[in-house]
Structures are given as C-alpha cells and as structure tokens.
C-alpha cells in the first residue's frame, strides 16, 4: 500500500524526529527511497511484536511522495526490506495495514 501524506497533518517535525529516534533505538528497519538524489519515500519493517508470531517479520509502513508513484521505487524498497528480514532469519513476513 502506498499512501500520500498531507504535510500539515502528518509531518510534525518534532513528533517525527522523536519517533525516528525511537525506531533507531529499537532496531527498526528504516529504508529511505532516493530518486535523482531526492529522498522521496520510506519503508518501516521489523520483527513482529506479536508473541505468537515471534519468528515473523512485519513490513508495517510504506510512504512515498505522490510525484514519485509509478516509478518502481516501492517495489524496490519492499524487496530490500524482505531481503533484510530474511537475512536475519525472520521469515515469513507479514504486510500490515
């Protein structure tokens, strides 16, 4: 799923900075999509938090700026997130919405 985010509603810089710091501290997988040297998208993934799915991974967010939709970047980031999760023996992988 690719979502277009309204900057006013979702991109509160202070809140996002704190959230990113927490993601990094918790070992979350954060991939940034770059197109023509411009950051244009994000994918978040990690080991699933559900105890019953302890050996599973989750890709739980993917965001791209609308002007970069349809360029194959989402597929590339999803593939990379899946490869990272597989390389750490986290498989199967859930896609959450």
From TrEMBL:
It comes from the Bacteria. Transmembrane segments: none annotated. Gene3D superfamilies: 3.40.630.30. Residues 1-97 form the N-acetyltransferase domain. Pfam families: Acetyltransf_1. GO terms for molecular function: acyltransferase activity, transferring groups other than amino-acyl groups. The keyword Transferase applies. The keyword Cell division does not apply. InterPro entries: Acyl_CoA_acyltransferase, GNAT_dom. Keywords: Transferase. This is Acetyltransferase (GNAT) family protein. The lineage of its organism: Bacteria, Bacillati, Bacillota, Tissierellia, Tissierellales.
